[in-house]
Design goal:
The structure is a homodimer. By secondary structure, chain A is mainly β. Chain A is about 5% helix and about 35% strand. In chain A, a hairpin with a 3-residue loop joins β40 (about 535) and β41 (about 540-545). Chain A is globular. The interface of A and B includes residues 619, 624 and 634 of A. Bound molecules: pyrroloquinoline quinone (2 copies). One pyrroloquinoline quinone binds near residues 75 and 593 of chain A. The site of one pyrroloquinoline quinone (PQQ) has 21 residues of chain B, from loops. Chains A, B: InterPro entries: PQQ_b-propeller_rpt, PQQ_MeOH/EtOH_DH, PQQ_rpt_dom, Quinoprotein_ADH-like_sf, Quinoprotein_DH_CS. Chains A, B: Its cofactor is pyrroloquinoline quinone; Ca(2+). Chains A, B: One of its GO terms (molecular function) is calcium ion binding.
Chain lengths: ~625, ~625
């Protein structure tokens, strides 16, 4: 064995960008594959497969599983790409003679990532053993884990141009040949190309999935708890060349905002809007990171995403609206130029990051069919906007517990149009530094955090995993040091209905984005930290922190199936088909912010940025460990 | 939450030793429980349950799973104890008032261990969520992992006297209250009692399961690759008091051998037999460790187990028979005194540890019904002995590849009676130091290693997981330093039929211990490193290194079922019943000696004591991660 020198030819893939864009868009239309980390460009997380129905979903059994070899929180979901060409592999015998150890073949491949150390597996879906075709083990400094705010998570891979893209925790973006893997590079375990998107010594990390739209791969940056100035960057899928970068704060030349043409609630934003709502140079360490999911509308050629909290968490320390933290962005894919912005939580006082996904689903509102964007924000409001113009159409609470704002002002003639009307009692700015503001709902992790929702066109419902958690929040003053925590608040979270003796901390709900109303809601013992999947079988899936995969009737919410996987589920459910059979897959492996107590071994109630105590009883249900579980109907 | 001070009353359990012995023996007779790490005192690993049959086993599905939160090799199996009394739990509120957080209740409990760090979970089998009743997290120095020869494995827990016993990697033996867990002690996470059985600074470690027989808990010691002098020790289940210790080598007073009464092949062994086949003081660092499974015959009041290899692995360095390494032992449970010994591999030259389990199954041989002991040794011979007298009845190769010895001399009148007739070509002693002896079969990990076999009385068959591996072995001289490796040989293993282009390294066989013949044999791609379970349903189960749980017809070996679990299986299959339903459970989590390349991240062919290259292709099938999988028939 040690006498064999393994080699692998790089898969030869079509070279022309046009052909590649086609390859990607053809695959994206095929419900049998799961080509993008969000299921599609619109972030619907919907599967058109329908072998599994409300009638038979109760019969699902575990078909196969794969332990990832990594503990801690497993977010995201694998990709499924059909008909990947796996190149021949050769070796050299003792006498230097080359021989074939594996013939070239074509198969359906699942690409699976892990949290730090961000191992990538290519699994053969047509092989009865689901053999590992290739594996990539990044070499990264383990120190990076210490600067990841909310567990050492990674939200997945992207596919495009015959390549697989991984954004490592240390912000390195790497590209592999989908067929040959990392071995496709000139050296073993070397990717086709890699670029550094940030600098961990300054607090930069990466947890978000990269997103490929046409011939670009887009990546964000995390580190809002380290004063990182957020940005989104487009790289050339072929070469890794940086094409454009748009910051969340700073001068127009760096935000790529056009003072005349970029609008906020219909009006041009004016010059240097990313600077002039900050004191002095604070925008340089002002947060607005970009660690969520991105969407793309090919007709408008616009990319949508949200920016995170302003740094620090102590609002008194950073007067002003702190633009453009907490903002929904629409950028031109080719140039990065900003079409419109909408800031949901000006001058954040609660860490209500605005990064949650933008779901591009057309909605008929007031008789008018809108190219809409629906967004369930951490701050507890669900927003429906016109995604062409950025017009605000609906903004309603999606958890009745929300109390920090009375409502969002929808009066176009009001001075506070589009702004939340903050309730003094729950304003950590109003109450001031070193004062513990009690009973703010939602908690910092919001009514929804990274766990993505799904849209089902058949019922026109949004299926939303939610948290039902409040907090006490005490801001304090601190100074910025590069690479050091820049949090500035002490938190403690608790169940929203604790006073009524009801300790549940989550719900899975169906939302009407036209009316801004909950259609049905299923209480969950714990926050639903897993992403939802709706299907044309009329079934919606999600996972729970105890470890269940659950299936409900999309229309009614009626529970049709549940099965406890090896560990708590914070991954996102996907569906795919191979060799004529529909499968439902989900990663378990408890962790994330909600599971940080288990993941990082913390036990003091206010550790883990205030989350540990609220989820302490999770330790009675599950333990760490990453496993992919794939369900199917029995033969 | 942080304001609550958790407390727990210790379960009050019957105090009289007689009652406790009864409790244990009554439970041991109940096929619905799995009370001992070996299934029973006789090491049959047989379940009398028969809801799952040859007819319906093909329908098995995964009922529930539990991720252990630990990577690396998961050996052993959980225990299942019925009707355990779980004590009330109380907490104290802000005002110091005590209130009940959990009422006392009675339930069926599964006790699950992990490899280092040796976490113990008590799981509620009657709770639909299989909630964690208690958990114990030992505090041990992680340095111990570096002195564990063959992965950081642990082979399980023992039950007795209402207590659960764990032998930690660092040789600490701890006792918990079965109902209250470690919290039952005066401090949180403190066991009822604990004792140090060895000293890791001298190379002592613990991997074996403790064994409770009557009112004693017996533990062994590992470290044969560090020159550890093996011993077996009996502690009082109540107090942890050391009752007796019997060494494998040394003076009679320490081996507990009686020169007149203790016999070897029918003859008294004479004075200081544990010294006089060693040069000088070599017996002090001479190995003979005791890291395997133990059996007990209550009628004879004898305990049976095997001792491991003499240290070092370089035979030229330790002239003589090196007694009593490589020996089957029969000791009186109450006194530790030795009734008889049988040394299988005098003066070992290949690391053929004799620790494999002794199966106590009566056999009719030559028309005479014998209280027999059947043992599948690493050296490739399967031995049938009379367990009353230690008389050798049968000794035959259980893999035709075995070539180091022509046979075991069965001629009672021969000078070499009972000894293997070593073939010079494969004698690393004969060929000498610094000479690479090529093509020795089996390899050091034997035709069978720790993976225990099962006995099915209905068919009178022994179901044996086996290896089919050979090696090159080059001994070299080295000197002893306490706590440092004392191996003295370089190895490289390879598939036994490599020259024929057949790369399989395992088989699962059925053995006739009367005739000494293989009845049927199923080839396996990889060594079968998992323990077998036969059942009264006519089905035998075992796991594979790729991760399959397999079920075969005990009579014919016909494969009836297979299902790939999340990781490679090196655990032992068990069966239990709760609430009227039969379950089959197995730990997956690849590792052990065969899986050491994956477990410890080694890649050079001769690393991992020569095992890495032989199992390199395992990396194409599976990755690390401990998960318990429980199968059942669909409702
Ligand atoms: O501000 C940031 O840069 C940043 C990064 C991350 C992250 O990268 O995971 C989270 C958050 N903030 C955050 O506020 C948050 O609630 C959160 C939850 C999680 C998670 O994976 O469970 N990550 C993050
Ligand atoms: O000599 C010893 O003390 C000793 C200890 C152990 C162990 O404790 O696991 C093994 C061995 N030897 C050994 O020779 C061996 O083949 C082996 C395999 C395994 C395993 O768990 O896979 N352990 C051990």
């Amino acid at each position: 064995m040690n006498r064999l020198l393994m080699t692998a030819s790089t898969a030869i893939l079509a070279a022309c960008a046009g052909a590649q864009a086609d390859d990607l868009s053809i695959r994206l239309k095929d419900p049998k594959q799961w080509v993008s980390p969000t299921g599609d460009d619109a972030n619907l997380r919907h599967s058109a497969l329908k072998q599994i129905t409300t009638e038979n979903v109760g019969k699902l059994v575990i078909d196969w599983q794969f332990s990832t070899g990594v503990l801690r929180g497993h977010e995201g979901a694998p990709l499924v790409i059909h008909n990947v060409q796996i190149p021949e592999q050769t070796a050299t015998d003792k006498n230097g003679k080359s021989f074939v150890t594996r013939k070239a073949f074509t198969t359906d491949v699942m690409y699976l990532h892990t949290p730090f150390p961000n191992t990538v597996y290519a699994l053969d879906l047509k092989d009865p053993d689901h053999k590992i075709i290739w594996k990539y083990q990044p070499e990264q400094d383990a120190q990076v884990v210490a600067i990841m705010c909310c567990d050492s998570v990674n939200r997945g891979l992207a596919y495009g141009d015959g390549k697989i893209f991984l954004a490592q925790a240390d912000t390195t973006l790497v590209a592999f040949d989908a067929g040959a893997g990392a071995i496709g590079g000139p050296k073993r375990n070397e990717p086709l190309w890699s670029v550094k998107n940030g600098d961990p010594s300054k607090g930069h990390t990466s947890t978000a999935a990269p997103h490929v739209f046409k011939d670009k791969v887009l990546v964000g940056i995390a580190g809002g708890e380290f004063g990182v100035r957020g940005h989104i960057t487009a790289y050339d899928v072929k070469t890794g060349k940086l094409l454009w970068r748009g910051y969340s704060t700073g001068p127009d030349a760096e935000t790529l905002i056009d003072p005349e043409k970029t609008t906020h609630l219909g009006k041009p934003v004016g010059k240097d809007s990313g600077i002039n709502t900050w004191e002095g140079e604070q925008w340089r360490t002002g947060g607005g990171t970009t660690w969520g999911w991105y969407s793309y509308d090919p007709e408008l050629n616009l990319v949508y995403y949200g920016s995170g909290n302003p740094s620090t968490w102590n609002p008194s320390q950073r007067p002003g609206d702190n633009r453009w933290s907490m903002t929904i962005w629409a950028r031109d894919l080719d140039t990065g130029k900003v079409k419109w912005v909408y800031q949901m939580t000006p001058h954040d006082e609660w860490d209500y990051d605005g990064v949650n996904e933008m779901i591009l689903a057309d909605q008929t509102i007031g008789g008018v069919k809108r190219k809409a964007l629906v967004h369930f924000d951490r701050n507890g409001f669900a927003y429906t906007l016109d995604r062409v113009s950025g017009e605000l159409l609906v903004a309603e609470k999606f958890d009745p517990a929300v109390n920090w704002a009375a409502k969002v002002d929808m009066d176009k003639n009001s001075k506070t149009y589009g702004r939340p009307l903050v309730v003094d009692k729950y304003s950590t700015q109003h109450n001031g530094e070193d004062v513990n503001t009690e009973g703010v709902c939602p908690a910092a992790l919001g009514v929804k955090d990274q766990q993505p929702a799904s849209y089902d066109a058949a019922t026109d419902l949004f299926l939303v995993p939610t948290n039902h958690v409040c907090m006490d929040y005490e801001p304090f003053r601190l100074s910025y040091t590069a690479g050091q925590p820049y949090v500035g608040a002490t938190l403690e979270m608790f169940p929203a209905d604790r006073d009524k003796g009801d300790m549940h901390t989550g719900a899975f709900i169906a939302w009407d984005a036209k009316a801004g109303k909950i259609v049905w809601s299923n209480k969950e013992a714990f926050s639903v930290w897993s992403g939802a999947l709706s299907t044309d079988g009329g079934v919606t899936f999600y996972g729970t922190l105890e470890g269940y995969l659950k299936a409900v009737d999309t229309k009614t919410g009626k529970e049709l199936f549940k099965h406890k996987t090896p560990s708590g589920v914070i991954g996102n459910v996907i569906s795919y088909e191979t060799s004529g059979k529909q499968y439902v897959a989900v990663l378990s492996g408890v962790g994330g912010w909600a599971g940080i107590g288990l993941a990082a071994g913390l036990s003091k109630s206010n550790e883990g940025l205030g989350a540990v105590g609220n989820y302490a009883s999770l330790a009675n249900y599950t333990a760490l460990g990453g496993v992919l579980t794939v369900f199917s109907l029995p033969n």
